[in-house]
Amino acid sequence: MQLTGAEIFLESLKREGVKTIFALPGGVVLKIFDVLHQQKDVEVILTRHEQGAGFMAVGSAKATGKPGVALITSGPGMTNVITALADAYMDSVPIVVFSGQVPTALIGNDAFQEADNIGLSRPCTKYNFLVKDVNDLAATIKEAFYIASTGRPGPVLVDIPKDVSMDKAEFKYPDSVSIRGYSPTYDGSKWKIKQAAEAIAKAKRPILYVGGGVVFSGASKELLELAEMTQIPVDMTLMALGGFPGNHPLSLGMLGMHGTYVANMAMHYSDLVIAVGARFDDRVTGKVSEFCPQAKVIHIDIDPTSIRKNVHVDIPIVGDCKRVLVELNTILQATVNGNQRDLRKPWWDQLHAWQTEHPLQYDQDPEGQIKPQYLIERVYKLTEGLDPIVSTDVGQHQMWTAQFFKLANPRTWLTSGGLGTMGFGFPAAMGAQAAYRNRLVLCIAGDGSFQMNTQELVSAVVAKLPVKVFVINNRFHGMVRQWQDLFYDGRYASSYLDQYPDFVKLAEAYGAAGVRIEKVGDVDAGIQEALSIDGPVVIDVPVYQYENCYPMIPAGGSNHEMLLGDPPDLKKPSPTGKKSSQQGQDTILTA
Amino acid sequence: MEHIISLSIENKFGSLSRVAGLFSGRGFNIESLSVAPTLDPSISMMTIVTTGEERIIEQILKQLNKVIDVIKVVDISESEYVERETALIKVHTRPEDRAEALRIADIFRANVVDSSPTSYTIEVTGDVPKIQAIINLLQPLGIKELVRTGRVAMGREPTRTASAQSRPLAKVN
Q1: What confidence tens digit (pLDDT) does each residue in A486-542 have?
Q2: pLDDT for residue A588
Q3: Minimal CB count within 10 Å: which of A418, A461, A544, B55?
Q4: Residue of A265, A267, A399, A479 with catalytic role
């Protein structure tokens, strides 16, 4: 049967099992929207900005593991979605973005709302396609989903010119895909895995350094098995949170620039680093020349380019984390001798000492201003049993959430790691909520970050996505202010947000609910109130403005050289003062 | 150190920009690049000359392998290879220099492919030192224009044992 390109698009999405797409129309995609409007199989969530559509696709993909889908128009629609593509590329998130394009006859003529979508997206997609003939559309969509979701996952763009969406062709969806230049390696070299097992058996101070790859490949169970069998401590990257239970006695928490003291000390003094699906990002390695000076490095990763990109690797294993861990566990089960707990005792004694010496900590004066860490920890405690999906924006609140929210399950953590995109959290949470209508989805945002995509509040109201957004409101770009405190003599250049909006009124203006929590004593009740509201809620929490996030490894510093608190000469007002931090009462210090 | 990378790539819209973009985006260096279709018109061969320390070259090879349009990557310079480059050189010739220009061309087994009362266009093929040598010799006469193709290269077939083959990288993504 002959179908139009727009109908082929719809039929192809159905074949891929797509239930929801995030979309914003425009001139060249109207034919596709017209077709989507007349059916019920694929839900269209209308966003108010294409960046929102992109992040919703990312959130949906992170939560479900299946590609998220966005549909946007040419020109500005495309340029607006670029940030989400770049974000997904850095964090290996499978999304497929469909962009409209001007009719093929006009491409290259500087037509109205034309942009070189392929050229723009090339450096921030795993692959991209321009469909020039409607007869290629179905096969292209099949390839797009295949490339996005296999190997190291990533974003794929499919650019559809207006005439292609209107032309007709016979619809036949291919059963399989064969791309001669693309065949990811899933099984690790048995010989290398055997070497890794031998190194693990010999190591005295081994550490598992695990990244997002554990989550993407679904290797949490195998990781837990490996860690428990060998009693090796686990350091998680920001992307790995939830991939190993945060409360597990073998978990040392997050490592890196704002990682725990014990996690970073363990890396520095380890004699064997077992990297699983992590890429030795600069926020983890610190100063590369002083990174894990005594350690041999085993690196398991599906992407060969990740191996030896930043640090020397002794035993490289290219393969899918899950398959490699299954293989490794089998060998270790047969070879690991003796009581691992006794064997590892000296190492664990040291780790426990570091844990006790400098645990994560903050002071909360019950009469003083709310500390951001306290709020986040209370949200965690009060929702722990509900297995929430948690998203964050980027900055101090993100790091505190990473530190204090001890997630138990994979795919419950949505954060922008590699690109560090403010404005990510709220739309990402909406994407996850669209995929799991009945789960609790929380967004921990900063007041700076949240303002980068507040327009989606109305999308959440219309689409009935009851996301709960906690705005950790310090009236600052907090992480910027922290760096200015530490490295720019406290000159707060453009980090104070002065005329911040009233977030409760803002939420109400969009048709959502607003709650404000101002006193320490009201925190629990406020959280409960917000959770009880059926619909999207913005919870504005004015917090102590000058709290800084520690531990911190200054950029370019070595992993064992952490700042554990504010330097003694840092001038800032006390959080215990009776003056509450309501709007208009901020005190800005000038150094 | 200089490396010559030979790669086969899908001969389609945008493939070249994926490779070129990879080099520019990651700050890798391209000394020369030449590309043309193979016997199979759906595949192009590309020869890239690049420089960098071993770690950088390893990344370049891996990153090229990762490009979905790239089918196979070989570091030709890992073992024995032959390389050639062609140059077209337009030499300004005064009447008294014309014989000298022809003599130089002859010595380098170069061909004169165009002639005018005041110039010869000389085509020369060879390795880089040879091309550089003829350029040096023709320069005193006055070179009006010079174009070079960039290098193409191919691994040598073994003459005795099969051990010294150029080593193809396994295609992994």
Answers
A1: 999 999 999 988 878 999 999 999 999 999 999 999 999 999 999 999 999 999 999
A2: 53
A3: B55
A4: A479
Instruction: Look at A305 and B172 and tell me if their CB atoms are within 8 Å.
Output: no
Q: Is A355 a catalytic residue?
A: no
In chain A, which stretches have pLDDT less than 70?
576-591
How far does B18 lie from chain A, in Å, by closest CA? 7
Give the span between the Cα atoms of B121 and B89, in whole angstroms. 5
Sheet holding B43-51, edge to edge: B32-37, B43-51, B2-10, B70-75
- Count CB-CB contacts under 10 A for residue A543: 28
User: In this structure, how many other beta carbons lie within 10 angstroms of the beta carbon of residue A289?
Assistant: 9
Residue ranges of chain B with per-residue pLDDT less than 70: 160-173
pLDDT value at position A69?
98
d(CA A477, nearest CA chain B) in Å? 30
Instruction: Return the pLDDT at A499.
Output: 76
DSSP classification of residue A308: T
Mutate to test the interface with B, among A178, A180, A299, A300 (most CBs of B within 10 A): A180
End-to-end alpha carbon distance in chain B: 26
Burial bucket for residue A261 (CB in 10 Å: 0-12, 13-18, 19+) = buried
d(C-alpha A53, C-alpha A25), whole Å: 11
A254 is catalytic: no
A113 is catalytic: yes
